[in-house]
Amino acid sequence: MTENDFNRRDFLKVLGWGGTAVALSGCGNTSIEDGKETVTSYVTLPSYVIPSISNYFNSTCAQCEAGCNIMGRVREGRVLKAEGNPNSPINRGRMCGLGLSGVQAHYNPDRVRQPLLKGEAITWDKALGVIADKLNGVKGAEVAFLTGNMSGHVQALLGNYMDELGSKNHFSYEAISPAVLRAANKKAYGVSMPRYRIDKARVVVSFGADFLGAWVSPVHFSQQYAQFRKGSRPEGRGVLVQIEPKMTLTGANADRWIGVRPGSEGVLALGIINALGKAGLAIPADVAAASKAYTPERVSGETDVTVEQIEKLAALLKERTPSLVLTGSAAEGYAHGSQNAAAIALLNRVLGNIGKTVEASASVPFPQIAPTVGNRASLVSLNDGLAAGKYKVVFSYGVNPVFSAPAALKFKDNYAKADFKVAFAQYLDETAQAADLVLPLESAMEDWATVVPEYMAAPEGAGSAGYAQMSFRQPLMDKLYPDTRGIGDILLALLKQRKADKYKEFDDFYAYLRSAVLKNKVALGGKATDDDDVFWDETLSKGFVPMKGIAGAVSAKASASDLRLPSATADQEYPLRLIPAVSASMRDGRNANEPWLQESPDPLTTIVWDSWVEINPKTAAKLGIVEGDIVEVTSRSGTIRTQAYLFPGIHPDAVSVPVGYGHEAMGRYAKGVGANVFAMLDAVFDKETGELALNETGVKISKTGQRVVIVKEEGPVGGSQAGKKKIAVQVAADKVDLSKEV
Amino acid sequence: MSVSNLLENWSKFRHTHPVDDKGHPDWEAYPSDIKWAMSIDLDACTGCNACSVACYAENNLPVVGKEKYSHGQAMHWMRIERYWDESAGVGEFDADKGARFLPMMCQQCEAAPCETVCPVGATNHTEDGLNSQIYNRCIGSRYCSANCPYKVRYFNWYNYPEQEKVWPEPLNQQLNPDLTVRTKGVMEKCTFCKQRTYTARNNAKTEGRPVQDSDVQTACQEACPVGAITFGNLFNPESQVAKQWKSQQVELTKEVQDKDEKEGNRLRGYRILEELRPYPSVMYLERVRESAV
Amino acid sequence: MQHILRLFILLVGLFAGAGSYAADAAPKLTTPDDLGPQIEQPIEFPHFRHAGDAKDGGMQINCMYCHTYARRSMVAGIPPVQKCIGCHQSIESVRDKPRIQKLFEYWDAKKPIPWKKVHDLPDFVRFNHERHIQRFYFQQDRPYQEVCGYCHGNVKAMTVAQRQKPLTMGWCASCHQKDHPVSANSTETGHGPNDCFTCHK
Amino acid sequence: MSKRYLLALYNNFDEAEAVVSELRNSDIKGFDAADDLVVKSPIEHPEVEEFLGEKPVKVQWFTLGGALTGGLLAFTLIAGSQASFYSQMKGGKPIVPIPPDLVLTYEMFILGGVYITVLGFLICAGLPARRSPLYSAKVSEDQIGILVKAEDGSVAKLREIFTKHKALEIQEEAGR
Amino acid sequence: MGKDIREDIAWAQINKDVLKSLESPRKLYWVILLVAIAMVGVAVGCEIYQYNVGLGVGNFDNPNVWGLYIATFIFWIGMSHSGTLLSAILHLMHADWRKPIYRFAEAMTTFSLMTAGLFVMVHLGRLWQVYYALPYPSERWVWPNFQSPLLWDAMAIFTYLSSSVLFLYIGSIPDLAICRDNIHQGWRKKLYSILALGWEGTDRQWRNFRITYLTVACFLIPLAVSVHSIVASDFAMSQQPGWHVTSFPPYFVAGALYSGCAAIITLFIILRYVFRFEEYMTLPILKKTVRLTFAIAMVWTYLNCIEFAATWYSHDEAAKAVLIEKATGRFAPFFWGMIFCGSVVPFALMVKKWQTSIPVMFAVSLLLNLGMWLERWMIVAPTFSHGYYPWTWDEHMWPSMVQWGIVFGSFGWFTLLFMVFCKVVPSVSMYEVKEMVYHRSLAKKKEEQAVKEELAAKGAN
User: Fold this and answer.
1) Do A19 and C201 lie within an 8 Å CB cutoff?
2) DSSP string, A59-105
3) What CATH number is attached to the domain comprising A205?
4) Of C124, C130, C131, the CB nearest to B136
5) Phi, psi of A440, rounded to the nearest 5 degrees
6) What single-letter DSSP state applies at residue A637?
7) Do chains D and A touch, with touching meaning 3 or more CB–CB pairs less than 8 Å apart?
8) Which residues of E touch D87 (CB under 8 A)?
9) What CATH number has the domain bearing residue E61?
10) Who among B74, B151, B157 is closest to E55 (CB)?
């Protein structure tokens, strides 16, 4: 690899994948075939490549923002599978289904293969020329760049580009990001994303944080959860209580799932504080004052949680410390979401968890590569700007707002108002279809990048306090399509249009990245005397580099003074609360065209290849709905038709529809599957942060008279074992001896 | 050939393998020093489906699509089952204590009901304790599936690679070359990642040492975010799986475990449908729930 | 009596006919002289020149010098072009032979040579070169010509390699059922695995 | 001296019986009732066999031989192939399990028995046979035929006996 | 109540009457034949489609891996048992009334076995590799698995089919000789003279014929029992709830005889009508067959009760669940249909007046056949959709038109074979009817003689 004339991509080339490469059509042909297939052979081959034996190259997963470190299994020039990097503090060698499906994003048959100008294939030179033309004479303030979460050197380049354009309009949008939580955390603990230590807690009370499914860094939290559940741990087996109106994967794994009335999470938190006080825990005066009015009886009435339950929970929290209270998307998606989050954060303060299970995290020492995290408020402001005709040229990368913006925002119409829209896209999704110019991206398995995760997990042991890391994404195989380019390369080319001489030393993004990394060798754990090539190779082979991060500090000064928690008001016309459910595999729908994800059943309903609406059996009985009824879910902003699924894990006042389905474009596996729940969300905003409140939509449900057989993994008896107690068994914790287990 | 073999093998194979008449293992007769086994901690399992997707990736499983899925023709070797509490009665579901998840795949039974009934001998017991499935030998009578108590055998109802075009170019480049893509009319099932155990055994043999835990992980085990799956050689007392089986007092060739007869048994290892005597090689650990809350 | 005789002849004839047909239909276990089909390769590689005995003008190169992966991988592998060039760039005497020129054409164009597979097993078969080389070459210490030649035939006398052995399942199994000494100077014997699953994937 | 064949047809078994007993008691030169007399009937008639005298039937021996061969062959084939099929183990059962093998042994026992019995029948009954020198379709309809072979000289005598017992028809042909 | 066969019927008349059935058929024959061919065409089309696309087109799913094919397979196997019952068992019992009707019953055995055999093929996922199931010495040294009941099945069917064909053939040699003697035109002449093997009815031939016929009959009886008990072992030897039942072999055998008898009644009536065989297929014979059917129906009902009771009072919860599922679940209409057709309808056979009523018996026999088909389906399907493992229970699987088409076509195939047979081989055994008439007249004579003697003795006194 250190040979000068050796281009790394050479051996990643797919060469003659006959017999040894893939065994297609396994059976049938039983004879020896002479001379029909070609042997995999190479011109040159590094000594570590042995045919039929896989090589593993470290890289970083791009399927969600957690940024797990992965190893790509490469054989005969093809990447076959993503496996976890065992040394990574984030995922510790593990993977989730979404991450594993990354290879299907790479090999996807529906990828865009060449630049498209209004649907016509053009060359890259022409495409870049068109961009230069269109930017000609446009003021910086008239250019907007919409991205999702970003970090690393691509972000640095983007920053440079925006500077060159003289634009400050970089909008970072994520449809399902925990944006309210960040703000609330900042207020309560002083850091927006502290390290949660589920593994150290004896009790975890999670207000709708689906940390095993789709929340922040699920694989990392799953690791912590595995520790937390170990009976042989010094703290003993941990207890998980999940409080949320719609059961998430985490709720399904809780010792106690509490189906709270939607929106009343903050009330319940204060009720628990109140009960804790009654149980004899010392409560700081301001908190005591704030929670004084929330007697268990009142709280019980508002939240639908029994008094007994609240008291039991308080007793458990008092007895078993340290505990950890988490705020998740289910609690923050309201107009008073920030208030909810603040009330819940008080619990951590009261219970003395801050500093114990809520730890300070560190951020990378280079601000230009630190993650820009997306939120929904930025989309709203972009939308407002578009509506006002402020932006002439709009770039979008890695986001699909036409699909995921609430219909009430009328984003699609506003987007059309911009003169020239450029989408950097891997698929021809809804946004790319609405764009004028589509530039095809390389997949994450062909591209170079660095990634700094927002949630900075740290390895065990000393030195974890100031730990920060930067992960590397490197090509795992040769480009499938010669006419695709990496985002870094495109940005570099665009920069060269503006300032050719400043960037002329960099042939491509790889060169830029390499030089940027080598320049900061020392900060990245190397010595100044290290050979550049050796250092670079070692870094790549590790897949990530630890850095001495800028450590933050957590404070326990959350104030309880300005809490205003509204009581729930009944909506006569739209009596049910719609909860858009975020599933671990589908998330916001950007991975909907990966068939493994479509075919892997939703863990709770086991439904595949379609969306559904979850209804509590009691509500369904009232409405006369049975499983498989096609129903119309109507809000003030829109209507969707989908199949009804009776689900015990949802509050009777709520219904839930998964997000990510209902694509009208994107590819053969995503198109036309299910209904898009984003399209029917009301435009209600969190009062403090301006975030779109996802759970604030009231709906009504009506039957259409049609009925289908739901396509799902579970059989007609549902989750019943039909009296067979020896299939999936559950025992009470005090009935087993967990402490001596191996 | 056959008569001399008969005479030669007669005495060798008169006795049953590996379960002799007394109902406990005749390990002496076991032809190798490896018995692959698994244990799955349901208390850790979160039901996230990562194992199942990993299995799709590793074992070239076809994605059949909605239409065929609706006909029950899904090809997931590892399926995640989700059960509810039924405190109020059968079919009356109660979500207060969450759900229970159970990853189900071929249990690699020691006395597998599927093996004896295959008319062509396409499924046999291997010397390392697996229940093999020889795709090319299969004629598709589906008798094995009919006789499987767990219903974990999956039949190729269609010609997925060629006629159904399940792997359109370039999706087919992802296929794992270590095992074939099965064509229509063939039964298939979980193999405990045969290609991985094969490589592990091969490497260990080349190095002249027994197989260790660190040599091999199944794809599901490797992916599992909570590490609920343990896999290894049950005959190696140093292996994690053997330790777990031992500490849970689960013995491979018993249909009723001694510990289950005892009062106040504080262990949680069990095997599914043990009473049918297939002697499954997968031990599950009961899900635990705190009752104080 | 006539009837009996007639019937007898009929039956015997039937059995004999069916038997001889069956015997004929089954591929023969070893076919020492029956070479497989001739396969056209991009370059007519003279195995006899490289691996042949010195008395026949060969250079007696060990098979595993070029097919170096055989001892550590499932597949024996075809050497990269680099390997050919490694020697041939310093062998001036044959530089202008047409085959060598062709080789250099590939090298200069940086293109891999599209060799055709000669010993091509069906897709559902797993054959492991490493295992066999380890067992017979390293442990049992047999000459490499014998070890490799058992399946590949007398390659050192061929130009382009041709399949000489049937490579059928029965042929594989005939060897797997034999007892072989476990090492060069051991009386202990063992045979190949019997499990279908070992070779079928 | 050349032989001649005579076929006489009768209406019922009583007449035929009378003819046969008379033929047997008669002393005609060159005619032996045991060898040269064949009775043909449209139905199976035990009395005919009775008055013709005991002639042992040997089909049973074929049956016995066939059945035993079939059974033995089956067991050897099955057990032998199980033992030599790479000794594949099946679901905790022995390589050569006796009880299941007996099922097929039993089937082959029957198969062998039936096949060889039928073969034995063909051999014992002399089938397939060429047409005998004299045959009348009446025999397969409703009449009983008595076919005799005798020397030229005794034809008249035989004819006389046949007519005496009200033969419906008498055919004659030179023999070989 | 019609008349029985006349003792004084002329033997030549028998020949004439029966041979008439071999003459050129009426138009209706061709119409039915064409319909049968069309039905076969449907099945062949379905099979080609299924062969090309895969078994999935039959709408199978993971638990329901066997559909109608295996149920129909058992149905046809079961139907084959009637021939053996009539020709072998009743032969040994010297029940002479079987003689006019056993020939077509035996033909039915052969053809239903041939139909059943096709279902084994249709059912396979890889029909083109079916030779893997044959025990032939191959270069690979690979053998089928002789422990598999499915292989026993194949072997039993082969044995039964070939034995039945031989039995049918041996039994009809004398009749073929009659045909040879009476038909002198065209291809038939050649065919019959070859098939008759030069049979002349000599005493030597008859002697060996009798013992052979008896021996083969003796073999056929245990063979028939073993065939259907082996089919039962396909289920009883497995471990599935509802299948793993000790009483399955006798239950299957009883069911087989039952459906066979029902089919005999159906065909009896059809042949009697079509060939005007009123003289031979007389109502007293029908009556006896009907009574026999009723007896077997009761045996079957009894075994059914035994099976249900054993399941109900056992501790096998899974088997009990399957039973409850059968009786109350999705299959309830079919289950109760089976009980109605199999156990209630036969009581119509008890009514004396109906026993000889052609239309009533025709309708009843069709219902019985339907009931027996349902029985087979109710054995196979519910266990699949309600096995040990609740998660895999499936209530939605319904056989697709491809499956139904092939099942439908199998009836056409059977009809086709049977109709061709009826025109080639006499469907009433002429020589045995002659024997029957002869023995009956002898017995009558003897009786008259005895009466006379008695009278004479009385007179003497």
Assistant:
1) no
2) EE--SSTT--EEEEEEETTEEEEEEE-TT-TTTTT---HHHHTHHHH
3) 3.40.228.10
4) C124
5) -75, 135
6) S
7) no
8) none
9) 1.20.1630.10
10) B157
Domain count, chain E: 1
Strand bridging mode A612-615 / A639-646: parallel
Q: What does the buried/exposed string (b/e) look like for E34-63 if buried means 16 or more CB atoms within 10 Å of the residue's CB?
A: eebeebbebbeebbeebbebbbbbbbbbbb
Q: For position B164, which CATH number holds? A: 3.30.70.20
Give how many domains chain A has, as a whole number. Answer: 2
Query: How many CB pairs below 8 A link B and E?
Result: 138
Residue E343: inside a domain, yes or no? yes
Taking only the tens place, the pLDDT of each residue in A501-554 is 888 888 889 989 988 988 888 888 888 888 888 888 888 888 899 888 888 888
Nearest to D49 among E162, E166, E207 (CB): E207
The least confident of C146-150, E377-381, E435-439 is E435-439
Q: Which of B4, B5, B114, B126 to mutate to test the interface with D (most CBs of D within 10 A)?
A: B5
Question: E149 contacts in B (CB within 8 Å)?
Answer: 117, 143
- Higher local confidence (pLDDT), D50 or A718: A718
Q: Which domain holds residue A246?
A: 179-360
pLDDT tens for each residue of A378-436 = 999 999 999 998 999 999 998 999 999 988 888 999 999 899 999 999 999 999 999 99
- Considering the domain boundaries, does residue A31 fall inside one? no
Contacts of B10 in chain D (CB under 8 A): 83, 96
Percentage of chain E modeled with pLDDT above 70: 99
Q: Where in chain D is the domain with CATH 3.30.70.120?
A: 3-56+132-174
pLDDT digits (tens, 9 = 90+) for E298-335: 999 999 998 888 888 888 888 888 888 889 988 899 99
C35 within a domain of the structure (yes/no): no
Whole-number Å distance between alpha carbons of E375 and E185: 47
Using a CB-CB cut-off of 8 Å, the residues of chain C touching D129 are 3
CB contact under 8 A, C170 and E140: yes
pLDDT tens digit sequence for D78-101: 888 887 767 677 877 777 888 888
Q: Does the beta-carbon distance from A95 to B222 stay under 8 Å? A: yes
- The CATH number that applies at residue A654 is 2.40.40.20
* Residue D128 Cα, gap to closest chain C Cα (Å): 7
Range of the structural domain that residue E289 is part of: 25-135+151-436
Please indicate, yes or no, if residue B290 is contained in any of the structural domains: no
Per-residue exposure over A244-263, b if at least 16 CB sit within 10 Å of its own CB, e if not: bbbbbbbbbbbbbbbbbbbb
Contact C29 E142 (CB under 8 A): no
Q: Chain D: residue nearest C2 by CA?
A: D126
pLDDT tens digits, one per residue of C130-156: 989 988 888 888 888 888 888 888 888
Residue B49 lies inside a defined structural domain of this protein: yes
Amino acid at B101: F
Q: Among the three residues A360, A391, A406, which one is the final residue of a domain in this structure?
A: A360
| E449 falls within a domain | no
- Residue E428, min C-alpha distance to chain D (Å): 15
Subunits touching E (CB < 8 Å, at least 3 pairs)?
Answer: A, B, C, D
**For residue E249, what are its two tokens?**
């072999």
Q: Contacts of residue B6 in chain E, CB cutoff 8 Å?
A: none
Residue A76 counted as domain residue = no
Contact E140 C27 (CB under 8 A): no
Range of the structural domain that residue C25 is part of: 1-30
In a domain, A540, yes or no: no
Residue C93 forms part of a structural domain: no
Give the fold, CATH level 3, of D3-56+132-174.
Alpha-Beta Plaits (3.30.70)
- Report long-range pairs for A127-133 (Cβ below 8 Å, ≥24 apart): A127/A437, A127/A439, A128/A493, A128/A494, A128/A497, A130/A437, A131/A422, A131/A437, A131/A494, A131/A497, A132/A497
Question: Which chain C residue has the Cα nearest residue B206?
Answer: C134
Query: Is the Cβ–Cβ distance between E154 and B129 less than 8 Å?
Result: no
Whether D85 sits inside 8 A of E155 (CB atoms) is: no
| Domain-located, residue C87 | no
